[in-house]
Amino acid sequence: MSLEVTPQTMSFDEPLPMRSGSSLPAYSLTYETYGTLNERRDNAVLVCHALNASHHVAGVYAGQPKSEGWWDNMIGPGKPVDTDRFFVIGINNLGSCFGSTGPMHVNPETGRVWGADFPVVTVEDWVDAQARLLDALGIDKLAAVMGGSLGGMQALSWTLQYPDRVRHAVVVASAPNLTAENIAFNEVARRAIVTDPDFHGGHFYEHGVLPKRGLRIARMIGHITYLSDDVMNEKFGRELRHAAAEGDAYRYSTQDVEFQIESYLRHQGDKFSEYFDANTYLLITRALDYFDPARAFGGKLSAALAAAQAAFLIVSFSTDWRFSPKRSREIVHALLDNRRRVSYAEIDAPHGHDAFLLDDVRYLGVVRAYFEGIAKELMQ
């Protein structure tokens, strides 16, 4: 069962100081809520989204039956994060292209579209903006903050920036920072965008064009990293789109789409280029690259996580090579060094990084059990 939901927007007039040293003047955040905030206002769960997701975490829009939120299998009535018990909030990050103030909006100080001039954003900036929205909703303390991938980084950052406002943190398929390999993938994707002739230095809006070629390639690169080798082989193998009859020669074309995996990647790239903003892609991947709470502590993650007061559930997936289980275990060990309460689940799943979005019974069962524990705490 999926809830019918309606996006909401909250505007803020007070500038937001940012880690880059700049500040964002008046801005708006788009968000959705699911369930009911209880009288004690202590059953709120903030869900933070990953790179190409949004505030639309769960439920459907009226009259749009195929509009399920990106984590609808996880959140809703009777689901692992049960909205009959919890008040769930999804917020679209600043700099995104799904409603919150971003590069496609007008800079109130210049009267021009922000474009490439939108301030550099960090995970910490997103958390600060989310905290302001929670303040406006009258929520002083979260029962939990939860996220997968980049959303998991935000959940971790919440426990460090606002340690007294978070009871539990659920960090799924994430890492304490990006490896050099991950940064390299992001940079190749960014170069694909900025070298597109239609990019125009990030001010393509003024030219009435979109750098779709660059976005397509960026998405194809990213999508490869989200899947495991096993899944790609199982789904596509070396199958050709047009199976040749016995005795027929291969077409040996350098331009045509020959293999099924090529067709799949081009389809994903085409879809992505129709709805995602190029400047947003640059901003969000940079935020991923910059996140590193241990940097201020000489690279010592245990020292960085000493500020956290929350209890944690950390989840990883065996075939996730972009955010490998090793990276999750680094978080677990650093928390244990600080004698924090930590539950850790490493799920043996074939789906790669995308596993955090899928219907693995063991994974959903782990999350359900953890949130049942939180619900019992709230009843005490």
Automatic annotation (TrEMBL):
Substrate binds at residues 219, 354. Gene3D superfamilies: 1.10.1740.110, alpha/beta hydrolase. Its EC number is 2.3.1.46. Keywords: Acyltransferase, Amino-acid biosynthesis, Cytoplasm, Methionine biosynthesis, Transferase. Residues 43-358 form the AB hydrolase-1 domain. Its main location: cytoplasm. It is found in: Cytoplasm. GO terms for molecular function: homoserine O-acetyltransferase activity. It is an enzyme of class 2 (transferase). It catalyses: L-homoserine + succinyl-CoA = O-succinyl-L-homoserine + CoA. The record marks 322 as: Important for acyl-CoA specificity. Pathway: Amino-acid biosynthesis; L-methionine biosynthesis via de novo pathway; O-succinyl-L-homoserine from L-homoserine: step 1/1. The keyword Transferase applies. The active site is at residues 149, 320, 353. Pfam families: Abhydrolase_1. The keyword Signal does not apply. Homodimer. PANTHER family: HOMOSERINE O-ACETYLTRANSFERASE (PTHR32268). Belongs to the AB hydrolase superfamily. MetX family. Transfers a succinyl group from succinyl-CoA to L-homoserine, forming succinyl-L-homoserine. This is Homoserine O-succinyltransferase.
